[in-house]
Design goal:
By secondary structure, the protein is mostly helical. It is 67% helix and 0% strand. The longest helix is centred in the middle third of the chain and has 16 residues, at 35-50.
Length: 83
């Protein structure tokens, strides 16, 4: 996936989560996990928010979900560099 496509996908997720300041995080998450996984995690996050289950911001919850998925897959956040 090319740089422009990753940024476009990341912007969609960032807008859904009202987290445009975290665009770099979303780009790297898509680079490591792929857009489908990131969309699923963002949908799960928004569902949890709608049900009133979040004790922190949706962006913070999503970031935690991303990091758990990275660990589950045996990836390392610093292993691959997104530019």
């Amino acid at each position: 996936m090319n740089h422009e496509r990753i940024e476009a996908e990341a912007r969609i997720i960032a807008e859904k989560l009202n987290d445009l300041n975290g665009l770099g995080f979303h780009c790297k998450a898509i680079y490591l996990l792929g857009p489908q996984t990131c969309y699923e995690l963002s949908s799960h996050t928004l569902d949890m928010e709608r049900r009133g289950k979040l004790k922190k911001s949706p962006a913070a919850y999503y970031n935690g979900c991303v990091m758990q998925e990275i660990q589950k897959r045996g990836l390392r956040w610093n292993t691959k560099r997104y530019e």
